[in-house]
Amino acid sequence: MAPFSVLRSSPVVAAAAAAPSFSGMSSHGAKQSARQGSSGGGGPDVWLGRAAMVGFASAIAVEVATGKGFLQNLGVASPAPTLALVVSGLVVGLAVFFLLQSGGSQD
What we know:
With 107 residues, this protein is mostly helical. The protein contains six helices and no strands.
């Protein structure tokens, strides 16, 4: 008995062998995403996303270049715990609000 004969008869290996591969997929998905991406530069959500990415990357670059954190560059040496709680609560509240709004708009 070969050492790998058990693997050949395994139902997991048989299911993985029967699963469709990426090379066997049609190019319909690629065409769909290409059509969505070529709609003239995108809407406001695309531009806001791009601006957020540029802002995040530039904030990281400034932190690496100066060796200081974001708040230290703004002149705040140590943020108050109350301020941190308020900002955290605001971020979580807005995230929940927008998640509920996006879930409710689908019909």
